[in-house]
Specification:
By secondary structure, the protein is mainly alpha-helical. The protein contains three helices and no strands.
């Protein structure tokens, strides 16, 4: 009985450690996306002071020249 309980505990610890490692890797891989999202937020806040939010979004995405009214 103790051997089964010990094996289950060891397996549980290994699975938790694997989950921690996988979630840590996911968090590190999402850092560039978080940085980009933060930049987008700051850019849109600054650009939307003078114009509409939709125009600010287009400008921060680099598409303002496509939508220029001539």
């Amino acid at each position: 009985m103790n051997k089964n309980l010990s094996f289950i505990n060891a397996l549980f610890v290994i699975l938790i450690l694997m989950a921690i490692i996988i979630l840590t890797l996911i968090a590190f891989n999402l850092r560039p996306l978080a940085r980009w999202a933060n930049y987008q937020t700051i850019c849109i806040e600054k650009e939307s002071l003078d114009t509409t939010i939709s125009w600010a979004v287009r400008k921060c995405n680099g598409r303002s020249k496509v939508y220029q009214v001539k």
